Amino acid sequence: MLAMFLCSCADEGNDAMAQATMSQKLYITIDGVSHTATLYDNAATRELVSRLENGNITVTLNSSGGFEIWGALGFSLPTSNEQITAQPGDVILYNGSNICLMYGSNSWSYTRLGHIDNLSENELRTFLKAGESNISVTLSLQPASTGPDGNTLVIYYSYTGNCNEIVQTLTSQIDADVVRIQPYDKTQQYEANGYAIGMQLLEAINANPNSPDSYPAIDPVDVDLAGYDNFIIVVPLWWSQMAAIMQTYLFNHGPEMAGKNVALIVSSHSSGISGVVADAKRLIPDAEWMGDALWINSANHSNRAAMIEEWLADIDYSAISTIIDDINIDRHSAPQGIYNLNGQRLTKAPESGIYIENGVKKIVTK
Ligand SMILES: Cc1cc2nc3c(=O)[nH]c(=O)nc-3n(C[C@H](O)[C@H](O)[C@H](O)COP(=O)(O)O)c2cc1C
Q1: CA proximity to 155, closest of 248, 28, 241
Q2: 152-320, what's its fold?
Q3: CATH architecture of structural domain 11-140
Q4: What's the whole-number mean pLDDT along residues 15-26?
Q5: The ligand 1 atom nearest the CA atom of 190
Q6: Ligand 1 closest atom vs CA 298
Q7: Among 48, 122, 162, 346, which has the minimal tally of Cβ within 10 Å of its Cβ?
Q8: What are the tens digits of pLDDT across the range 46-62?
Q9: Residue 49 three-state SS
Q10: 305 CA from centroid of ligand 1 (Å)
Q11: pLDDT tens digit string along 187-222?
Q12: Nearest in space to 246 (alpha carbons), one of 163, 170, 311, 188
């Protein structure tokens, strides 16, 4: 055990983990699909962020060497080159003016910029279009909005059908697209043997929540979260936690909901839901939470229509999801409240950026 520990510390690829990171995420968008990257805090990334504050940067990258897509940024950044072994997911500055997005590994004298969050090597190869040329890559500080308007996606998992019924009731009350998360292995009986399999899956996650290997495999989900502004997660409680199957999806995609409105509905037999709420906050760390989660249990499941209606009113859902058709409004006829430039209502003013408050454009810089 000690030998393994020493060995991994000496691994060049893990040196990066020791570096300070920025709270500001980098969004990388390719063909309408966005993923976040965590940025290291160094002179190069500070300069990059300052350039991105003036607008998104789109570059054309090409596959090379079987391990990266790379190309010219069009400007230079300060270097702190060192001989490193870049790993899959690393975002690298090469020769001061080129960006490399790694889907394999390579040893060279590089400056580290960051690391793409939570994608496996296979997912990286797909996202980065490994092997292709002339790939248009947009770098930004905010999620790229590819949808025409603000809108809502309901994401749910259901093993015995209760969450499925909740989603049907919910979507009879709001307009939303729906996506169902399914386990890859559909033969598992999570309730068998005193709910033992469900418990084992959760124990594996709890033992190592930051490792993708801890999460049970799920079917691929073909939906681009960048096109949505609001998300409602509907999920069963297992052993006072979030059902493991949904945890896999949120582990992979929760970071893409950063800065967006997210709400949670939890179905349990009778247990309280604070553990599920904690799991949701861990897996979607930068969400704008729409009020408190709704808890539906076996005693009130049949009353869910009234409960959902009341909860939607409590979280002010209709205001949050309302789209203003034209933000060029004058302040006398303006809708009251705070809106982003997509016309989507916010629960509070952003810490930085441009927003509309009671019809008046505001700009805040940090
Ligand atoms: C593996 C497993 C563990 C569960 N653990 C709990 C529990 O600790 N407390 C509880 O009240 N309900 C528990 N339940 C019951 C579910 O939370 C409840 O039946 C829920 O409505 C199921 O939603 P679904 O039908 O959409 O799968 C568990 C169910 C399973 C399958």
Answers
A1: 248
A2: Rossmann fold (3.40.50)
A3: Beta Barrel (2.40)
A4: 78
A5: 1
A6: 21
A7: 122
A8: 999 999 887 778 788 99
A9: helix
A10: 20
A11: 999 999 999 999 999 999 999 999 999 999 999 888
A12: 163
